[in-house]
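Pipeline run #58 for the internal structure catalog. This entry was flagged by the ingest filter as a single-chain record with no existing model, so it goes straight to prediction. Upstream metadata was stripped on purpose; only the residue string is passed forward. Reviewer on rotation: M.T. Logging verbosity set to normal.
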Amino acid sequence: MPGPMTGGKPLPPMISFVGHSGSGKTTLLVKLIPELKRRGYRIGTVKHTHHEPETHDRGKDSTRHREAGAETVIFASSRRISLDKETPGDDPEALLPYFHDMDLVITEGFKRKNRPKIEVYRTTTHAGPLYRGQADFVAMVTDADLPLEIRKFHLEDITGLADFIEKRFLADAPRPQDAGRSPSAAPKESP
């Protein structure tokens, strides 16, 4: 299902990875992005912050996204995004036109925005997840043994998570190259 349009071209789908600070969102994304790229998808990312964007030094989250293979990276705060021009960065929908040539946009943050979310939750860092049955949460990546109404993935199940994203968000995305996948490598949905 195509998303909003810009210049007659559909904008890519956007999903948000959310979780408490220190839950491992960036660590998960720098594993997930290369897997999606290996499958032939062009991935853009947005890192939401409550601080003003700073220079992208080595080791910073936005730099780690780029090094993982994201072809477009925006580091966003509530007042601006780090591009050559200033513009509000607290609305992920307003950022989509910057990613018109991507297949998928992954945001890290924007937990209060109403859009599809995948929560990263670790039992060792927080007492409980953000998820409380909200309809915009579509999956959780966790080490917890929680009964959930949404899909659950183990923290190291990058392939399963990529399969889920591919099936749910990228089914209609044209890929510039097949990246060596055979038809038998189609994603499998597990309960």
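catalog note: Residues 25-38 form the longest helix (14 residues).
catalog note: DSSP finds four helices and nine strands in the chain.
status: ready for reviewer M.T.
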